[in-house]
Amino acid sequence: MKRSSKACSFGVLLLACWGYAFAGPTIINGSFEEGGFASRITLPAGSTVISGWVVLPAEIDWVDMLYEPSDGMLMIDLNGGGAELGVDPSGGIVQQLSGLKAGRWYRVLFDMAGNVDGGEKIKNLKVVVGLRLPGTVDPQSNFRFNTEGLSRTDMGWRKKHIDFFFPGGGQPILEFRSLESGNFGPFIDNVRIRRIWNP
Ligand SMILES: [Ca+2]
Question: Is 79 in contact with 90 (CB distance < 8 Å)?
Answer without folding.
Answer: yes
